[in-house]
Amino acid sequence: MKLYNYFRSSASFRVRIALNLKGLPYEYIPVHLAKGDHKKPEYAAIAADGLVPLLDTGDAQLSQSMAIIEYLDEQHPTPALLPADALGRAKVRALAQSIACEIHPLNNLRVLKYLVRELKVDEETKNTWYRHWVREGLESFERQLVQVHQSTPSTYCYGNTPTLADCCLVPQIFNGQRFNVNFDGLPRTMAAFDACMKLEAFQNAAPANCPDAESIEATIQA
User: Fold this and answer.
1) Residues near 39 by beta carbon (within 8 Å), at least 6 away in sequence
2) CA 210, 214, 216, 219 torsion-angle sign
3) CB of 49 within 8 A of CB of 4?
4) What is 86-205's CATH number?
5) Domain limits, the chain
6) What is the pLDDT of residues 2-58, one digit of tens each?
7) Residue 193 and residue 42: Cα distance in Å, rounded?
8) What residues contact 134, with CB distance under 8 A and at least 6 apart?
9) Dist. CA 41–CA 65, nearest whole Å
10) Residue 65, C-beta contacts closer than 8 angstroms, at least 6 positions apart
11) Is the pTM of this model over 0.90?
12) 183-210: pLDDT as tens digits
């Protein structure tokens, strides 16, 4: 398999974690979003949405990180990233979507660039926007974890093994750290993050360990 991705992309980070958790080898192909690689004709020819990540399975090209991870979970079911029961799967998907569908769309690269380039906001205003929506979203996520953990004592977001929810949480915390988001008062969220970061699958997927990694200074505008 080939994974077209960008080291700072939260969505790409999710898929790298999933691949690592399942022990699946893949070829890492960098697509530099900040430099516009995703808009080049050769990438558009294989990625209809012009986004990352894109997983080339050898038989098909798959986009959207959540769809990719569920595909991997169905094709390679061990270790499972979704619970065996329908209720558990619904709870994990709800946690994952709280990040992927509620938090991330408001602070991804396209949105931040639009704020600066089209709406002409300054850097501090852009960063304030980012911190507000990430913090508000994580406060909601924390409340959801409290409810989940009342019925399912958990080391991670849900249960005692990493799930799709953890694949989403860790990249969001990494990006939040980059923008100095305040994580105080989020004990269950940060406990799940800390538990994940003890595992090599998460460590090895981190942006700093990617082949195309750059310094924070070189990419802070992204």
Assistant:
1) 50
2) negative
3) no
4) 1.20.1050.10
5) 2-79, 86-205
6) 999 999 999 999 999 999 999 999 999 999 998 999 999 999 999 999 999 999 999
7) 37
8) 103, 107, 172, 175, 176, 179, 181
9) 22
10) 11, 12, 14, 15, 53, 100
11) yes
12) 999 999 999 999 999 999 999 999 999 9
Give tens-digit pLDDT for 88-101: 999 999 999 999 99
Q: Which fold has domain 2-79?
A: Glutaredoxin (3.40.30)
Encode burial over 27-38: b for 16+ CB neighbours within 10 A, e otherwise.
Answer: eebbbbbbeeeb
- CA dist 130 and 108 (Å) reads 9
Residues 155-185: pLDDT tens digits? Answer: 999 999 999 999 999 999 999 999 999 999 9
Q: Which token pair is 222?
A: 């992204």
- pLDDT of res. 214: 87
Q: Which tens digits make up the pLDDT trace of 53-73?
A: 999 999 999 999 999 999 999
Give me 128's structure tokens: 């304030």
Single-letter code of the amino acid located at 77: P
Q: How far is CA 102 from the centre of its chain?
A: 12
Residue 67's identity, in one-letter code, is: A
202 Cβ neighbours under 8 A, 6+ residues apart: 17, 20, 162, 166, 170, 196
Place of tokens 């979507």: 97
Q: 149, 200, 203, 217: which is closest to 174 by C-alpha?
A: 203
- Contact in structure between 163 and 13 (CB atoms under 8 Å): no
Q: How far is residue 41 CA from its own chain's centroid?
A: 26
Strand pairing partners for 5?
30
Length of the chain: 222
Q: Is 213 helix (H, G, I), strand (E, B) or coil?
A: coil
